Amino acid sequence: MKELLLQLTKKLEGELYTDETMRTLHATDASAYREMPLAVAIPKSVGDIKKIIQFANDNKTSLIPRTAGTSLAGQVVGNGIVVDVSKYFTGILELNETENWVRVQPGVIRDELNMFLKPYGLFFGPETSTANRAMIGGMVGNNSCGSNSVVYKSTREHLLEVNTILSDGSEAVFKSLSTDEFHAKCEQSDLEGSIYKKIRSILSNYDNQEEIRKQFPKKSVERRNTGYAIDLLLEKAPFVAGMPDFNFCELIAGSEGTLAFITEIKLNVVPLPPKETGLLCVHFNSIDESLRANLIALKYNPSACELIDHYILDCTKDNIEQNKNRFFVQGDPGAILVVEFCRQTRAEITAICTQVENDMRTANLGYHFPLLFGNDSKKIWTLRKAGLGLLSNLPGDAKAVPVIEDTAVDVNDLPAYIREFNEILIKHDLHAVHYAHAGSGELHLRPIINLKTKTGNELFKIIAQEIATLVKKYDGSLSGEHGDGRLRGEFIEQMVGKKNYQLLKEVKHSWDPYNIFNPNKIVDTPPMNSML
Q: Got the DSSP string for 170-235?
């Protein structure tokens, strides 16, 4: 294999590394997983990517597409060739101001895209907490969203078109198709045609339709990254008359590089939000109080409702940088709900926040209601985004581990779901950190476990199993935004049912019959407590 890789190196315009240092650097992402890859490829052109795909087919190895490596579920961890496009595929290729879209390569950083768009009065909405380094290719692969998803939804809702290279090395563009165009694609005799034929066969079957609608998360759960999004494709023409046109982009978003290799991405962009932003930082005695108050805040159309619990707040006390950002904190709250409003004037925001405060106080919820503007509000978001890093610095071997940190339910079910969630942890003598996207029905929940012990390793899986069962009870999604990867793939069959899981395997096989694109993610995933 070393000799074969050396021959491949000579054929590429870009670079290929087999040394231990580069492989070690690419053996992890931001998750709890680590696996040494065979090699690391840095392609410089579409031609390079085609050669790497051909190599994988010829030599029965696999490819792991990668951008910034900020994924939290082991999506870019694997033993094949990591194909890192973050160095050369970084171009913003085209902007259409009239039609409000931009075309980019996958290595464009989200925040840098918005710097480019700002002079045109435009903006790409979905925002991860890692937006100053996360790249658009990864955001598509993971169907990322973020704090402002109550307004801007997920990457899927903004994905218009993708240029790809399929597993046989052929190029294909996926975009919105009329019913006639969809059926014409099914008549093609190439791999692209067989992909369309397979999805038509799956989604035209009445029994499949019934099972998909019965088992996938209920429609009111907007954050849904469990498996491939065949439930969303089902609700499009030609399968349901009068519905929007079919677009495979809905499936590609959240597919984690397991179906095709993306080379270009066309995104919908929107007008910049109103310039004035205010944050109502409501203090509560408990998590439960904050989640009930969250339902009141949502009636006033905020642009974000983000939770910060006492564990994160405690971490900020001893952090020199973040301690400065605690100026608004009164006492030791059990939780703070940060409710963001964007309007044209501060007076509008102040009036809304007065109503919100009155409603919450009437319901006996909350004890301190500071309203912050300008640089003060930026400090709050800095503190909120710092939470994940601060948690990794908890003293000792027990850490707040990413295992069931991405569950999403209907926002109205969130208070009851979190109560049951914490009852399960108490049963195991555990407690968890709660933070992030209360407004979207998703809290990032991280139990504090020592994974260096055998007991901790076993608990990692036991908790995952029991919480998966709880999420299914609420018809929620085991992944709201962080994806399945190595972490949740094992539980997808439980979440969508045996029949639907087989359909997901058929989808994967139709796109990637030789299993070269990021195998063992989403389907056929090994035990989630292996390769930690």
A: -EEEEE-B-HHHHHHHHT-SSHHHHHHHHHHHHHH-HHHHHHHHHHSPPTT-----SS--HHHHHT
Asked whether residue 31 carries a pLDDT value surpassing 70, the answer given is yes
Q: Phi and psi dihedrals of 318, rounded to 5? A: -100, 5
Q: Rounded to an integer, what is the distance from CA 144 to the centroid of its chain? A: 4
Which stretch of 35-39, 354-358, 441-445 has the lowest confidence by average pLDDT?
Answer: 441-445
**What is the C-alpha to C-alpha distance for residues 311 and 5, in angstroms, rounded to an integer?**
48
Q: Is the pLDDT reported for residue 115 higher than 80?
A: yes
Place of tokens 């380094």: 133
The rounded distance, in Å, linking the Cα atoms of 417 and 471 is 8
The CA–CA distances, whole Å, from 415 to 53, 368, 412, 438, 488 equal: 47, 21, 7, 10, 23
Strands 335-343 and 304-309: antiparallel
- Give residue for tokens 């075309």: 103
Cis amide prior to 333 (ω within 30 degrees): no
- The arithmetic mean of pLDDT across residues 496-518, rounded, is 98
Max intra-chain CA distance, the chain: 73
Cα angle: 158, vertex 159, 160; to 5 degrees:
110
DSSP conformation class of 496: H
Phi, psi of 473 (to 5 degrees): -60, -35
Amino acid at 493: E
Is pLDDT of 392 > 90?
no
Token digits for 214? 């019965």
Distance from C-alpha of 380 to C-alpha of 325, rounded to nearest angstrom: 6
| 353 phi/psi in degrees, rounded to 5 | -65, -30
- Position 211, amino acid: E
Rounded to whole angstroms, the Cα distance separating 407 from 421 reads 11
H-helix or E-strand containing 488? helix 485-488
Return the minimum-mean-pLDDT range out of 103-107, 161-165, 231-235, 481-485: 481-485
Please name the helix (run of DSSP H) or strand (run of DSSP E) that holds residue 268, with its range, or none.
strand 261-268
- Give the whole-angstrom CA distance, residue 42 versus residue 183: 37
CA dihedral 452, 454, 459, 462 (to 10 degrees): 130
Amino acid at 383: L
Q: Which residue has the higher pLDDT, 222 or 112?
A: 112
